[in-house]
Amino acid sequence: MRFLTAILVFWATATAGALAQTGQPHDAGVNLQRAATPMMERITDFHTLVLVIVTLIVLVVTALLIYVMVRFRAKANPEPSQFSHNTLIEVIWTAVPVLILFIIAIPSFRLLYFNDVVPEADMTIKVTGYQWYWGYEYPDQGIGEYLSNMIPDDEIDPAAGQVRLLSVDYPMVIPVDTVVRVQVTAADVIHAYAMPAFGVKIDAVPGRLNETWIEATETGVFYGQCSELCGQFHAFMPIEIHVVSQDVYEQWSAAVANDPDSGNAILAEFQSEQRDTRLAAR
């Protein structure tokens, strides 16, 4: 009983930590990051469905093993049975796995289609992977490529909400509730653009333009990393995305076209207001 209680307390604590720190990893994390896009919501639902199915399979198989060990032990069966086939059982253990696979396959194909087909986009961002940083370009807004590098440890400012190994000097910025087409490529070696809270992970391949899409449903700061081994400093190639309101995005896009630092000042002010609002709500 104490063991089960400890598991429940650990799970509740980990879940509470995930809710408090949306968009980034946290201590004692045992679950997926909380979804911030419709895509990640569907991925989470599918993950939960498969987890339930796998758990039931494990419980049934474990129960069968225990039954067989007890019912057919040598002491209870001094003269073992001589049969080697049972048609009904063989049909069942063939048909049931096929049925389970169909149950998993239908939502799986729906999810793959939802993920692969980019809906009509409101804007486009081109993302380029370099060793070992990212470049962002906004062709619709006339914003040329700017580079995004990880902030060194000795320059991290926790008071400003910066996170070691994840915060960058010039983040990617998108407006909330907006369909964003993300075109991904690389300039040198293969990278992978991955954002867990958005349900996005796509390879950045030199000479090839891959694309995915994002529709963030809440404002905030979200972190990801390059997820393809790309050389010596692969571990120091984070992705930081700021999801802001439409009016703040318009201010940022107008400012960053001329001066990236002034764009950062707008983001800092917005995030400060968001933190004050969350603290007041508590």
Key features?
single chain, 282 residues, alpha+beta, Helix Hairpins, Immunoglobulin-like, five-stranded mixed beta sheet, 10 strands
Structure in a nutshell:
This protein is of the alpha+beta class and 282 residues long. Helices cover 41% and strands 21% of the residues.
What does this entry look like structurally?
The chain has about 280 residues and is of the alpha+beta class. It has two domains: about 30-115, Helix Hairpins, CATH 1.10.287; about 125-280, Sandwich (Immunoglobulin-like), CATH 2.60.40. Helix content is about 40%, strand content about 20%. It has five helices and ten strands, in the order αααββββββββββαα. The protein has helices spanning about 1-20, 40-70, 85-115, 245-255, 260-280; strands spanning about 125-130, 135-140, 145-150, 170-175, 180-185, 190-195, 200-205, 210-215, 220-225, 240-245. Strands 3-2-1-5-8 form a five-stranded mixed β-sheet, with no helix packed on it. It has a five-stranded mixed β-sheet with strand order 4-10-9-6-7. α2 packs antiparallel against α3. The protein is elongated. The two termini are about 35 Å apart. Residues about 5-20 have low confidence and may be disordered.
